[in-house]
Design a protein that fits this description.
Elements lengths: L9 E9 L5 H9 L17 E7 L2 E7 L9 H12 L6 E7 L6 H13 L3 E6 L6 H11 L7 E4 L8 H11 L17 H16 L9 E9 L4 E9 L2 H8 L4 H18 L3 E9 L7 H6 L10
Parallel strand pairs: 1-3, 1-4, 4-5, 5-6, 8-9
Antiparallel strand pairs: 2-3, 7-8
Helix pairs in contact: 6-8
Length: 305
């Protein structure tokens, strides 16, 4: 009997939501057992609503990784928040991730309000417990668990895999018996070009400073498989000439390091030697241009709902 026909096989759709830098992508990478989502210590690394698929003998969970919910400052930010909110439509449950190492603020209250208004069952995952004392954690649990009708409240450390297995147990317990929606070897519903572009952007976010990480977009224009390697051509978009200079770096040092780090990780992803070429172009104010956002693959229909 295959997994889909196995008695007791459960499946469902789960939205993972929270503020920027709460650790949503780190959590999903940990649950999936491999890195499929980019991570950065800078907020708003995730820009798209991405489906990640976890398949086990007991069932299949389709997670929606969502952009952090924040106060938008440009059209891209508006899209990101709309994408996060719309991820709650049609899912079976949500996991709300809160960073307990920082004070609970109005942004977290707004996320809780969105969860309450959605009416869907929600598990509250209190993340980064490794950064606070047990006494502080107990206070957080007592305080935050009263702010909404959560199905469960669980303290975790996504980075150190603390209590993440228990979180998966709680998720499967909450899901109903159902079919397998994706083949069991699929872990993300995005094409290779998207994943490659995200890996390049991750390196840029981690190597640049100030406003530059958020003003960067990456477009993979060509992926061509040769006899002994894969040739990849990608363009890095920035909004101003000054940002272009920062991305390139003195004597090209930043761009070279981005290329080196990205190529190494892409080779692991594709299990092949990679020749990576990077260019930097200026697209004025691209984050506020609907045409540019659509060209970059952002589905703006969420903004119109």
């Amino acid at each position: 009997m295959d997994k889909q026909g196995k008695k007791g096989f459960r499946s469902g759709f789960v939205a993972v939501i929270g503020r920027p830098n709460a650790g949503k992508s780190t959590l999903l990478n940990t649950l999936l057992g491999q890195k499929v989502l980019i991570i950065s210590d800078k907020p708003q690394a995730t820009r798209n609503r991405i489906r990640c698929i976890l398949t086990e003998e007991r069932g299949q969970v389709i997670f929606f990784d969502t952009p952090g919910i924040h106060k938008p400052k440009h059209r891209l930010g508006e899209y990101m928040v709309a994408a996060a909110k719309s991820a709650l439509q049609g899912v079976d449950m949500a996991v709300c991730v809160v960073d307990v190492s920082v004070p609970f603020g109005t942004g977290d209250e707004y996320v809780f309000q969105i969860v309450k208004e959605s009416g869907i069952p929600c598990i509250l995952a209190l993340n980064k417990i490794d950064l606070i004392t047990k006494e502080e954690l107990m206070v957080k649990i007592a305080t935050l668990s009263k702010l909404a009708d959560f199905r469960e409240v669980i303290p975790i450390s996504a980075l150190h895999s603390n209590n993440t297995a228990k979180l998966m147990d709680l998720i499967f317990e909450a899901l109903q018996p159902g079919p397998m929606f994706f083949p069991d070897d699929v872990v993300i519903d995005q094409p290779e070009k998207f994943v490659v572009a995200e890996l390049i952007r991750e390196k840029l976010m981690n190597l640049t400073r100030e406003e530059v990480p958020h003003a960067v977009a990456v477009v993979v224009e060509n992926m061509e498989e040769k006899k002994t390697l894969i040739k990849i051509e990608a363009v890095i978009l920035v909004e101003r000439d000054s940002q272009k200079g920062i991305v390139i770096g003195k004597d090209g040092c930043i761009l070279k390091e981005v290329g080196k780090l990205a190529r190494e990780e892409i080779e692991t992803l594709l299990d092949s030697k990679v020749f990576l070429q990077l260019w930097v172009k200026v697209k004025k104010d691209w984050r506020n241009q609907n045409t540019q956002l659509r060209d970059l693959g952002y589905n703006l229909k969420d903004l119109n709902e």
